[in-house]
Amino acid sequence: MKKFFLFAAALMTGSAVMADTESYVAAIDASTMASVFPVEEITSGSSVVSFGTANLDVVAVGGATPKTVEADGTVTEWNAITWQPKNTNLQDNVEGLETPYFYYVLGTGNPCVEMGVEEIIRDGEPTGEYRATYVYYGPEDAVIGDKTYKNVMPIQGLYYKFTPKVDGTLKLAVWSNKGNRNTFVVEESSKQPVAYTAEGYINGQNEQKEAVINGETVTYNAKKYLSAEEIQDIHNAAKVNEEGVDTAPYVIGAGNQPFWGYLTVQVEAGKTYWLFQDSSQIGFGGYEFTFQGSEEPPVTYNYFSLTFPALAETYADGDFSITVTNGNDKYAVDENSQYFGDDKNYEKFETRLKTGGKSGEKSFITVNIPVAGKLLLMARSASSSSVRPVVVTQNEVEILNAPLDDTKAIEVEIEGAAKKVFPIQETNVEAGTAFITYPDGAINFYCIRLAVPEGAGITRIVSDIATENAIYNLRGQRVNEMVPGQIYIVGGKKVIR
Predict the structure, then answer these.
(1) Which residues are within 8 A (CB) of 245 and not within 5 positions of it... i.e. 6 or more apart?
(2) Are 183 and 196 within 8 A, CB to CB?
(3) Which one of 177, 198, 245, 311 is most buried, by most CB atoms within 10 A?
(4) Helix/strand/coil percent split, the chain, to 5
């Protein structure tokens, strides 16, 4: 499990209010869990875990389920509480084609507001054995079928609480095996659900894709990523009756298939919002919280851009440069047009630098940074069906770990046609050396850019660095001397002592 922050403030001049985004990833793969998810049992039979980011506090509560219940409702033995990493396959397993997954953490316990007891009846006869019964949350008190609902917040079971410190938009990654259950985001003080939009995948909604493997075209099934409008249409067709009444307003989609994707909700500072399902467990994959940042004085930036018209060892724009370590001879350059930016500001690039595989001691990119600024990466995963991270380290610190996910692209009408625009990854950097790696697979770079505040002495500083022949190890640390057998970066080039 990794926790990281994305500060997606647009680089602009004149505008003082900045839009910030901070993110938390709950599970990266099926075998990794965050250290913040230990099981902490307390007397009420719950595991309470607190975490979050700078402007959002989160509490996850996992519940035990009764194993042995007495006639008076006393629970004498509880089943164990668990937090488990899970994943859902997003396409057919095809040999030679990397399979993407949707990752999440899953806890235990139905989120109930009351727990009772009933005797187990077999073949019409009382058994003298007992089991727990549950009352569930509802927007109003009601009895529907064999279930009882009350407008009371859950007291145990699996739920998540989010408390923002500023107003903003909260995008939650969730997984729901019980698609016919109500999925609630409830404001704590009013005990009423708040509206959200859902986008993502519904089981059974597939599309055929093609890939070239070993020179042959292979067709495979992939889960179709559905927009909020498409999911709403599916829901309306199944749940809105002839009189126009929505008979299941809190069920996602048609409600008879699992759902995994994203719920987006508007939240207010200081209020607490609960995420849960009635009579089921909902998986949690993390969140993205976007809000208006504090007012800052306008900043004008100078940009130094590296594009890739042909394969080379070094690329430079003025005093900003990168060095490509291509020990595996897998790097290549080709023509490929893509847009990067957002719906209002975007830029087209015509060529790309392809890494051809994941990074290692023989394959990585060294960035020579003359002065502090912002490093911007216009990059995509080399596999459109796979989410692969691009990592930037400096001074032995991981300053960016950004998953490159094609589903994050937006469609923008450009010159009369719908075009995909991919997001730009950015991080603050200091003067010195940084390293770009791609530990899970090949990445395609369209542009690497340095944004420097106007007035920074970029030429003088980089000239001083060059004349010093500074020595850096592969962690980005400056060292005084080289150890035999180790790899170092000297003057932007790889050196083996």
Answers:
(1) none
(2) no
(3) 198
(4) 5, 55, 40
What tokens were used for 309? 């018209």
Confidence category of residue 54, pLDDT binned at 50, 70, 90: confident
* b/e sequence 41-78, b meaning 16+ C-beta within 10 Å: eeeebbbebebbbebbebbbbbbbbbeebeeeeebeee
Residue 279 clears pLDDT 70, i.e. is over it: yes
Report the alpha-carbon distance of residue 82 to residue 38 in Å, rounded.
Answer: 9
Phi and psi angles of residue 406, each rounded to the nearest 5 degrees, phi first: -60, -25
Query: Which of 200, 163, 162 shows the shortest CA–CA distance to 276?
Result: 162
The answer to whether the beta carbons of residues 472 and 479 sit under 8 Å apart is yes
Q: How confident is the model at residue 34 (pLDDT cuts 50, 70, 90)?
A: low
- Strand locations in 328-424, DSSP E? 332-341, 346-354, 363-369, 373-381, 388-394, 397-404, 410-414, 417-422
Collapsing DSSP states into helix, strand and coil, what is residue 398? strand
All structural domains of the chain: 17-295 (no CATH), 301-496 (2.60.120)
Q: Are strands 471-472 and 410-414 parallel, antiparallel or unpaired?
A: unpaired
Inter-residue contact 460 to 452 (CB < 8 Å): no
| pLDDT value, residue 289 | 93
Answer for the pair 375, 426: CB distance below 8 angstroms, yes or no.
Answer: yes
Backbone angles phi, psi at 465, to 5 degrees: -65, -45
Backbone phi, psi, residue 245, to 5°: -95, 130
Return all residues near 302 (Cβ < 8 A) that are at least 6 apart. 451, 452, 453, 454, 456, 458
Model confidence, pTM? 0.58
Q: What pLDDT shows up at residue 427?
A: 92
Strands 320-326 and 147-150: unpaired
Per the CB < 8 A criterion, the answer to whether 286 and 24 are in contact is: yes
Strand partners, 77: 68
Q: Which residues of 344-380 are buried (b: 16+ CB within 10 A; e: fewer)?
A: eebeebebbbbbbbbbeeebbbbbbbbbebbbbbbbb
In this predicted structure, what is the pLDDT of residue 20?
A: 82
Question: Which residues does residue 79 pair with via DSSP β-bridges, in sequence order?
Answer: none
For 309-339, letters b (16+ CB in 10 Å) and e give eeeeeebeeebbbbbbbbeeeebebeeeebb
Among 387, 353, 163, 362, which residue's Cα sits nearest to residue 275? 163
